C-alpha cells in the first residue's frame, strides 16, 4: 500500500520515528518541581486543595487542570489512512502524528488513545467515559458506517466537542477547495456534476457538506468497491450511503465519470484511470485524496487533461487537500470559547475562512517552505499551504465567533482584538513583546526608507507594513525589477499608491542628493566623483541622504552586505546624536524563558567604563518603548568584587558612573550571568543588590562577550532575535544582518517609527522651551 513512496522516504520515515528516541511525543511538566515546597504544591498535600475546589465547582477544572486545552485523538484502527483495518496498535504513529500537528499548529495538547474495540456500543462507552479528562474528542480513522453511529451517539452523550476528523475536517477543506476551484473555472455549484469514488466516512461527509453549499443531490454520483451506488442495490449498502443512490443502470466509475466537473476521490490508490479523466467536463477538478497514494497521480492526470485542477492529500504535490488545514484550528476556536459542540455554523465559518485565505497574498513562511517559489492563488494553489501561519489567525476566531453566534459557546470571548493578539503571539513569537511598538507606530505611522528595496524580504515586509498601517515604505530599487518581483511573489502593494520608490539609476533628486552628501561627508574623504558614483550605486548612501534631508523619518538597511560598510555610511552621513560619543548596538532575544536585551552585540570591541554607562542609559530608553521597565545587569566573570581583573574593575567603575548619571535606573553589577538571571543565585552573593528579579538588560564588557552570548542564545535557546537596534545615531537608522527574515524587518520598522516619533517629540519640546542664557 505504500507502493508510491520512494525508498528514500521509506527509510527516512523509519529513521525519523526511531531516533533519537522512539515515537514523536513526550509529556512535559509546565510547573517547577525543584524543591520540597514545589512538591508540596504539585502533589500531596497541596494538590488536595485543587481537587476540593473542582469537587465544589466543576468549572474550576478549566483553570486548575490542563483539561480545557487537552484533546483526545481516538482511533480503533479500522480505516487508517487508506491502509484499511490495520488495527489500533498499527494506527498509533498516525495518532501520534495528529497529536504533533495539534500542538505545533494550534498549541493544543493531545493524548492519543488507541482502543482495541470494534463494537459500536462498547466503543461509545469507552470514549464517553473519558469526558472528565478532555476538553474535546477528535475521532480518527474509524471506518464507515460504524463511525457515523459512534459520532452521533457520542455527540448526544457528551458535553464537549466531538468531531470526526475524517468526515468533517476533510469536508471543510474539500468545501474550501471546491469553492475556489469553481470560482476559477467560472462554474456554479448548483450546476456541477460530482462523481465520488468512496462512500465511506470522508466521502459521504464531503458530499453532505457540498450539498449544504448548494450542490444538488441529483448531480452527485457515488461509487465504491461494489461500483455505482444505485437505487435497489443490496450489497454493502447502509442508510448514509443510500441517500446518494441514483436511479440508473450505470454500474461503474468509468460510466458515470462522463462529463463530470468534479472527481472526489476518498477511496483507494489508482482507481481513477487516465481514460476516465479524458471523459470529464471542461476544466475539471480532480480531488484524488486517498492517502498515502492518491486515486491518480497528478502527473498522470495532468498528461490526460492539461486543463485539470488537481489536488491530493500529500505534501509532496501542490494543492494538499488534507484535514490538517482544519482540525487544529477548528478545535482552537471551539476550546477557546468552551463550545459544547462543533456545529454546522462553525464548520461553515471554517470553510469560508480557508477559502478566503487562499486568495490572499502568500506569506513569507510559505515562501520559505517552498524554497522561495511562492504559489499565488490559482489552479496550483487553490487552498492555503499547511505551513501558512495565518491559518490559525483566520480560522480560530471565525469558528469562535460562529460558536458564540449560534449559542454553543459557554465562555464567549469579550475582546476579539485581545484574542487575535494571543493567537498572533502563538504564531509570531515576537508578537507579544512587539505589540506596544506596533500600537504606537500605527497611531502615527512614519516614512521608512529601505535601502535594499529589491530584496524579497524587504518587499514582503513592505506588504505587511502597509497592511498593518505602521509606516509608509520608501523602497530604493529599479521600478521594473521591483514591479516584476512584486508580481512574482504575489504581493499586492503598488508603487505610488502604497509605497514610494527611489530609482537609483534615474531620480530627479539626484543632483540635490549629491550636494547634500558632499556637504555631510566632503570632509570625511568623499570626493565629488566618489559622491556621484556612490549616489548611483550604493543604496545605503541614498537612504542615508534621504533621511538626512528629511525625505524619510527612519532608515533600514543591512539586509544584504557587510554591517561595517553600512555603518561607515551611516557614520559619515547621519552621524551620532548630540552628546553621544559613538554608536553601539543592542539586540533583543526572545526565548521561551523571557525577553533579554543584550549590548553591545555588534559595534564597539572594548567599550570604556563611561561608554558602558552611556550604553546602559540608551538601552533603557529603547527598552521602555517596549512597555518594559529595564532591569540592568552589568555582566562580568566577577561577582560583586569577587575578582580584581581590569575588566571587572571596568564594570565596577561603569556602575558607579551609571548610578551618578541615572540614579533611578534599577541596575547593578558587576555580576556573573547566572546571578543576573536568577534572584536566588544573586541573593547568595549579594542579598542587598539593587536589582530585583531577573535582569532583562544585559550589558557585557566587550563585543566578543556580547556577540558570543547573543549567538549562543539564538542557537541553544532557539531564541528569536530582534535587531540589532542601533544606539546613538542622530536620526533613526538601523543596520540589520543578512540572516534577518521579513518578520524581522517588520519588527525593526516598528522600532524605527516609534524612535522617529520620540525624537520629533523631544525636538518639539526642546524648541518650545525658553532658551536659557
Ligand atoms: N486527504 C485527506 O485529508 C483525507 C483522506 N482520506 C483518505 O480517504 C480514504 C478513505 O478514508 P475513510 O473515508 O476514512 O475510510 P472508510 O473506510 O470509511 O471509507 C473507504 C471507502 O472507500 C471505498 N473503497 C475502498 N477501496 C476502494 C476501491 N478500490 N474502489 C472504490 N472504492 C473503494 C470503500 O468502499 P466499501 O465501503 O465498499 O468498502 C469505502 O466506501 C483513505 O484513503 C484516506 O486516507 C480520509 C480522510 C482525510
Ligand atoms: C488525512 C487523514 O486523516 C487520512 O488520510 O485519514
Ligand atoms: Mg484520518
Automatic annotation (TrEMBL):
<feature type="domain" description="Malic enzyme NAD-binding">
    <location>
        <begin position="167"/>
        <end position="404"/>
    </location>
</feature>
<dbReference type="InterPro" id="IPR036291">
    <property type="entry name" value="NAD(P)-bd_dom_sf"/>
</dbReference>
<dbReference type="Pfam" id="PF03949">
    <property type="entry name" value="Malic_M"/>
</dbReference>
<dbReference type="InterPro" id="IPR002505">
    <property type="entry name" value="PTA_PTB"/>
</dbReference>
<keyword id="KW-0511">Multifunctional enzyme</keyword>
<keyword id="KW-0560">Oxidoreductase</keyword>
<dbReference type="GO" id="GO:0004473">
    <property type="term" value="F:malate dehydrogenase (decarboxylating) (NADP+) activity"/>
</dbReference>
<dbReference type="Pfam" id="PF00390">
    <property type="entry name" value="malic"/>
</dbReference>
<dbReference type="InterPro" id="IPR012301">
    <property type="entry name" value="Malic_N_dom"/>
</dbReference>
<dbReference type="Pfam" id="PF01515">
    <property type="entry name" value="PTA_PTB"/>
</dbReference>
<dbReference type="InterPro" id="IPR051674">
    <property type="entry name" value="Malate_Decarboxylase"/>
</dbReference>
<comment type="similarity">
    <text>In the C-terminal section; belongs to the phosphate acetyltransferase and butyryltransferase family.</text>
</comment>
<comment type="similarity">
    <text>In the N-terminal section; belongs to the malic enzymes family.</text>
</comment>
<protein>
    <submittedName>
        <fullName>Malate dehydrogenase (Oxaloacetate-decarboxylating)(NADP+)</fullName>
        <ecNumber>1.1.1.40</ecNumber>
    </submittedName>
</protein>
<dbReference type="InterPro" id="IPR042113">
    <property type="entry name" value="P_AcTrfase_dom1"/>
</dbReference>
<feature type="domain" description="Malic enzyme N-terminal">
    <location>
        <begin position="22"/>
        <end position="155"/>
    </location>
</feature>
<dbReference type="InterPro" id="IPR037062">
    <property type="entry name" value="Malic_N_dom_sf"/>
</dbReference>
<dbReference type="InterPro" id="IPR012302">
    <property type="entry name" value="Malic_NAD-bd"/>
</dbReference>
<dbReference type="InterPro" id="IPR012188">
    <property type="entry name" value="ME_PTA"/>
</dbReference>
<dbReference type="InterPro" id="IPR045213">
    <property type="entry name" value="Malic_NAD-bd_bact_type"/>
</dbReference>
<dbReference type="InterPro" id="IPR042112">
    <property type="entry name" value="P_AcTrfase_dom2"/>
</dbReference>
<dbReference type="InterPro" id="IPR046346">
    <property type="entry name" value="Aminoacid_DH-like_N_sf"/>
</dbReference>
